[in-house]
Specification:
Radius of gyration: 21 Å
CATH architecture of the largest domain: Alpha-Beta Barrel
CATH topology of the largest domain: D-amino Acid Aminotransferase, Chain A, domain 2
Largest sheet: 9 strands, antiparallel
Helix content: 25-40%
Number of domains: 2
CATH superfamily of the largest domain: D-amino Acid Aminotransferase, subunit A, domain 2
Bound molecules: pyridoxal-5'-phosphate
Number of helices: 9
Number of strands: 20
């Protein structure tokens, strides 16, 4: 069986190491953001994270981050579910993120990973009496699933964690063992991605994506009460389908066999963007090719996130000053404050290229 399985995706060279990290309000050299073996979150999964993308718009020479404050609002909600008291707001986190990206000076698409976790080095499973750490790092990033022609999904034998096990609407580090089990089993069996069912046997979501199907003319996606993550791509896609493509979108539970009979299926997520599903469990979806709705939606979505749709520019946060020609890196501040770290509000100085710490 292994001979047939293409594991290249999982064995590809690791993403480049970032130069900088955001750590509790400061931008520090990436290697300085290191933690010990007994770190609570490392042992018990008591952390949460977000995933955002930055899109390089070559015409404007600008890097746009898509819906950062929305992502950070969900991040803060996940923190509340873990009884974490964060001293930062979504607005603080957004400005910390922009500062981090300016320090990196990326002029290409990138992925941003914010996380908050209990950083205490102590034994004992609990959520109380612990101290959170907030960090962020960003790396250059391309396509997540790496399949432009659509993916073949497997209905996983793993069930999606339900709200009364680990809340699915929180993005908790520990819950991703569930996604990892499903994804790896699917890839090892020759599929591209897993689709998980929930406790009730309804189609829930991919390992890191929400799912939509087109059936009898309507676009259908599971409701947020079906143990799915309340994805921003999901929300963006529902908006684009309704407002720009005139489609009816229904939020209701989906049976596994409805999926087999759908005209189109697609996955949505910050990482996966809009990924059409062309086969499920060795059955062709529709004609087994990317359908017209997914194709149009994908084009509209990529224009939207790239800052090319004026009415949606409000969702796209520019990283650089208007010219976008040079990264505003706070090297001058580094020299000035003499601490080796950058602080919010330090004066920015322009550098021509990414600056290594
Ligand atoms: C389990 C799960 N579902 C859905 C999504 C899609 O969410 P978003 O569109 O906010 O990236 C993700 C994203 O990481 C995820 O992990």
């Amino acid at each position: 069986m292994d001979k047939k399985v293409d594991l290249k995706v999982d064995r590809k060279a690791p993403a480049p190491t970032p130069h900088w990290a955001y750590l509790d309000g400061r931008v520090v050299p990436y290697r300085q953001a290191s933690f010990g073996l007994l770190t609570h979150a490392l042992n018990y999964g008591t952390g949460l994270f977000a995933g955002l993308r930055g899109y390089w718009n070559a015409d404007e020479r600008q890097l746009f981050v898509f819906r950062p404050e929305d992502h950070f609002r969900r991040f803060c909600e996940s923190a509340r579910l873990l009884r974490m008291e964060l001293s930062v707001t979504p607005a603080d986190l957004t400005s910390g993120l922009l500062e981090l990206l300016r320090a990196e000076g990326y002029r290409e698409n990138c992925y941003i990973r914010p996380l908050a976790f209990y950083g205490d080095e102590s034994i004992g499973v609990r959520l109380h009496g612990l101290t959170p750490v907030v960090g962020m790092a960003a790396v250059p990033f391309g396509s997540y699933l790496g399949k432009e022609d659509g993916v073949h999904v497997a209905i996983s034998s793993w069930t999606r964690v339900s709200d009364n096990v680990i809340p699915a609407r929180g993005k908790f580090a520990g819950s991703y063992v569930n996604s990892a089990l499903a994804r790896t089993d699917a890839v090892l069996a020759g599929f591209d991605e897993a689709l998980l069912l929930n406790d009730h046997g309804h189609v829930c979501e991919g390992s890191v994506e929400n799912v939509f199907m087109l059936r009898n003319g309507s676009v259908v996606t599971p409701p947020v009460t079906d143990d799915v993550l309340e994805g921003f791509t999901r929300a963006t896609v529902i908006h684009l389908l309704r407002e720009d493509m005139g489609r009816t979108v229904v939020e209701r539970s989906i049976d596994r066999t409805e999926l087999y009979l759908a005209d189109e299926v697609f996955l949505t997520g910050t990482g996966a963007e809009i990924t059409p599903v062309t086969r499920a469990d060795h059955r062709a979806i529709g004609e087994g090719r990317i359908g017209p709705v997914a194709a149009e939606l994908r084009a509209r979505y990529m224009d939207t996130v790239g800052g090319r749709v004026s009415k949606y520019r409000g969702w796209c946060r520019p990283v650089y000053a208007a010219t976008g020609e040079r990264a505003a890196v706070t090297a001058g501040a580094l020299a000035e404050n003499g601490t080796g770290v950058l602080r919010h509000g330090d004066p920015a100085e322009e550098l021509p290229a990414r600056r290594a710490p």
